[in-house]
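Model: Ready when you are.
Researcher: Fold this.
Model:
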Amino acid sequence: EIHIKEPIEKEVNPRLLPGELLLCEASTVYKYVQEDGSNRGTYGKLVCTNFKISFLDDDSASDDNEPQFKNKIVGENDITLQCVDQIYGVYDEKKKLLTGQLRKYPEKLIIYCKDLRVFNFCLRYTKEEEVKRIVSGIVHHSQTPKLLKRLFLFSYASAAPNNTDGRNQTVMFETLEDWRDELERTKGNVKYKAVTTNEGYRVSEKLPLYFVVPICISEESILKYEGRGIPIWCWSCHNGAALLKMSAFPKEQDDSTSQMQKAFLDGIYKTISKPPYELLKTDDLSSSLPSLQDIQTAYTRFKQLFLIDNSTDFWATDVKWFSLLESTNWLEIIRRVLKKAIEVAECLEMQHTNVLLIEESATDLCCVISSLVQVMMDSYSRTKSGFQSLIQKEWVIGGHGFLDRCNHLHKSEKEEAPVFLLLLNCVWQLVQQYPPAFEFTETYLTVLSDSLYVPIFSTFFFNSQHQRDTNKSGESLKTQSGPFRFLTVWDWSVQFDPKALAFLNNPLYAEKPKPDRSQRKTARFKHQRQLSLPLTQAKPSTKRGFFREETDHLIKNILGKRIGKFINSSDESPNSLREFYDSWHSKPVDYHGLLLPRIDGPEIKVWAQRYLRWIPEAQLHGGGTIATAAKILDLMEEVQSLQVKMDEEHSQAVSGDVHSVPMLRNSARLSSLFPFALLQRQSVKPALPTSTWKDLEDEDDLVKRDDEFVDLSGDML
């Protein structure tokens, strides 16, 4: 028996953005609520445009019961073409990956998304011709290689009115002035200079138009090897020590070329190791951190744990959750990256040493480490505008290949690697360990990760500033001709209205430094609570510390592989690093000073909000950090409304009418899935051990023991 809503009688048409075209559609498509054996769901229309795949049911036609945290561009039943990860067809109860031309069309379609949503569509009741059109259309437009100019980004830019919010405070780093201002802000302008050598991209198409180098570096040196072998400034510490990055020379060279390059590098190193510059420590990230291939492999395994098809699979994996999580190696990579950032921070803060990060292109792991170090050491980077400016500086203008690393064009899976997601996962560890230090919330980070796949913003859809600039000119639909006017993702009003934007700002952000032990204790208690989630790491910390040399030879190797050519104290590094780490953690936290993440044992956690938000079985009823944040927002609204009513003398009046102000959010409806989803249904863990339950799956009476649907309109426990 199938529990369904009646097929929609009235015509429901998709809401199209400027430049969006309807390509194909199918009626009488049945969307399962979740593939859990109950066949609950709703009939509707499945459409594919040049921007998204969308399911339209009768609820789509009304604005009633709209979620509080509504995205104005991408609805809850919308999947942008760039957000589609894999598509499976079900043939006679067997799943098959769909790519390219199809000879036979499936009776069921399963779409796995990069934001970890899973959509199940039944096509049994759809006309055969419509099935052919919609399935082949979805597979073609979301899975096959495409040209850059075919991205919806260009269609939207040419058709949409340019009503961007002028109040955006993010520094874009597209002008020489932006770089000079940043030098002045960090007091780096004494030893470093912003250069115009690459104007017209005459040095390299991979470098930005403007960048900063040590004053002693000549223009000839920059031009000699297309910018390779040149230390490029990232940030200056309060004590004058600077963080630099450098694009390495190719390893496979003939002897004469290799010797010339070595001589050139030696000259550069000697120049920037003399006063007024600090001692220089170089760090080749390709040997001290996992490779991009390792990162991609780990994340591919990791995300499979959250692409849950049904309740049965969820409870089957629950019993072996920790071993599955550990085998992905994703949390270990996060730990190693955070440890490297601590190591760099120790050199800058304690040793007053310049650190030069080296990588083949200096646009992947260099971006991760330099960004993390700045978030840890510079409180400006922990404000919303500061963090956005940091992403612009190090990633967008810095030349991270978003187009290739996110595989937006489906050209080569070999280039794909979740480098930017790795940064957001690392920043999240800091946000959840030290909430008052950040002006933004974990919801902000989650939404930012989702924006990677929304092709109306240019921010994450080019490999370099040069590629963006050369593709900016084009024919416009509204004017005869002219450059495209791309939107930036930092204008959040494009995606959210003011009420929703409130969830991106941290109401408990510490505006002034307040080293308070009680706040630290509270934070730790919250972290321990989070360990009780079914899908977070709670591996007990071993007696052997993460830093102790006898625990793991790998750690020794990581620390030992740093090139210590200009530093004599490299042998003492592990001990001084542990001392630095322990010393900092023994003191009260200055939320506007240096922040060091806790990386021992189970301190590294799964980013629960991003990875569990679509899984009802994993929800905490009435709990979770976001539900707590929503309650705080309610209290703030009450306080603000009281302040309007109160006189200047408010010392005794606060306790008056607290309960008279209506709550904007009904706390009974909140869970850890909020604000991305409200309570969907109560999931009941099977009484039998999971292994036994799996063995008995074929027996009807057990399979039909299903989750109860929670009626949101009623009272809930």
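Researcher: Now this one.
Model:
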Amino acid sequence: MADGKVDPAVFTSASLPSDPRLLATVTNAYLGTRVYRDILHVNGVYNGAVGDTHRANIPSPVNVRMTVPSADSLAETFTLNTRTGTFSHVLQATDYAATHQIYAHHSLVHLMAFSITIWRSAHTTQPITVQLQTPFVPKSQDLDLNQGPDFQGAHYVYGKTLVPEVEGGPRPTVHMLWTPVPQALTLRGEEQERSWEFLTAVAESEEEAKRSYSEGLALVSAGSLHSSHVHAWAMLWRGCRVDLDGPLPLRQALCGCLYYLLSAIPPRGSPGFLFHGISPGGLSNGTQGEDYWGHVFWDQDTWMFPNILLFYPEAARAILEYRIRTLEGALCNAREQGYEGAKFPWESAATGREVCPEEIYGAQEIHVTGDVLMAFEQYYCTTQDQKLFREDGGWKLVDAVAQYWCSRMVWSEEEQCYHIRGVMPPDEYHYRVDNSVYTNAVAQRSLNFAADIARDFLIPVPEEWVDCAKKIKVPFDAEKKYHPEYDGYSPGEPVKQADVVLLGFPLMHPMSSEVRRNDLEMYEPVTELDGPAMTWSMFAVGWLELKEVQRAQSQLNKCFSNITEPFKIWVENSDGSGAVNFLTGMGGFLQAVLFGYTGFRITRSSLRFNPALPDDVSKLKVAGVTYLGHKLKFTIAKEEIRIKVMESRRDPLASPLEAVLEESGRRFPLREGQSVSIPMAAGWIQRSSTE
């Protein structure tokens, strides 16, 4: 079949992967599981103290397998449809078909559901029976589960987690209702087709669980439960389209990455629960000893967040609100280590206290605090949402991070600059180093942003912030014209993952093209080939900046060894080790396209673009890019860029936009519903200077 006839958004196989970790996931922002797994997880519900805290295992009523034991010549297919957020299993006989669909409802986030549909294709009158294998037992090692009275035909259990994250801290209660599952279902002889629907509702209050279950039942009665879920996904995709004319594996990878990442974000409008961030393996993973226990790292803020922000600022805001709610924990972390302000944990769960099981990372991998603030900066520049900072706690967080960085620096009389000593850089092969170039550069960026936003809000800027930002050491070898990873780094030393290359993007640290090239040349050959999956995406972005498109593509192609078949689940390391459903790697891959191929850069005053397409990609369409209240569509071909304002928000922040070409300074007004065509060249989008 020609590539053009294969739907890149639908992944189908006649068999399941032998490794159950690589099964498709069905999640929304609140509930998640892998198909055919005996547990599910709830966003923000952890059990265990500090380093032992992990996502609480909740027994999964949707773990059901459909079989027809005595059937002959039965064709079997398993499909993940990323357009509809639905996993399906089809058994096809000569005279009938049975379909099992599983999904986590995207907009009704407290609901998971599955259905069984049997239909006969021939004029037979024999009853058709399918068996349902369900190993479900309503017990959990993490919850003290009790049985409650049935509700509207559903069974009911509830219970608290056993151990709080911190002494005296909260122990969330989980309430779960589910439709009992029979051992078999039969299509009677006189019936042509029949469907059975099974609901699971999970919430942290009895009232919400029952309300959600009742709402699900009403939709089942109206025949619209699954269609309402499909509609929610259709609306989600409508606001976020990435299409390219290019190789099928690349198109499939993009669809898979977007599906798994979009599965994790809150729906538009009020989601009805507090969002607790996104962990490297998402909600489908994170039990004890798996996928970093479901903790939240810099992976969320640096690797996933920019893609979400580009399309869905409201969901990006929810991620920032999680960091604001956990600020108290970050303030405690700093105090415990003898510093002022807020130190965000290397691994975060419900409270913001450090929950990394190994002390060295929590103590030394402090760049995460700057990574968190960089997400706030990108959001502010893209939305100009002052309310988040003035009224909703954002400024308090910015101020606390700036205080932390100033207290973490020491003055070097010898070098006449500030040092940050005893840290672990993103390259975790090295620790207790001084002046990690990435850490120091992100600290400098934090302080500059804090000062900028203070000026915007007419708040006096502490002189210390300005002084520390101006005089912090950012290691640079003037002779070799490259950035050493830290004081004393020797060229050729092995590096675990992307580190110095992150200075160019996403940090956008000022440097010449020569230095950018030298950093890429220096670190590319010494970076662990089988290391974390997001690494090569950042090398690709660097080479795209320098218009070395084929070299960029060779780096991006390395990512494909981390993508497994048939459901495009990413593994952290190409040998299969580490986290699975590795959203971090997917986030990096998406950035290589959304910020690499397009050249998008979020700056204080504009959204810059500078496209570079590889030879085997003739056209790229990115629709739904949100900037200052406008939704934009970019169509990038080899010779031209077309920009269209798809829709504009009706408020004062959404003042008209214009495109400006860098070389000529020529301006193109952007009006809703109209397209402008400009040459394939660098430029930027900004507020119109004439209206």
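Researcher: Key takeaway?
Model: The mean pLDDT is 96.
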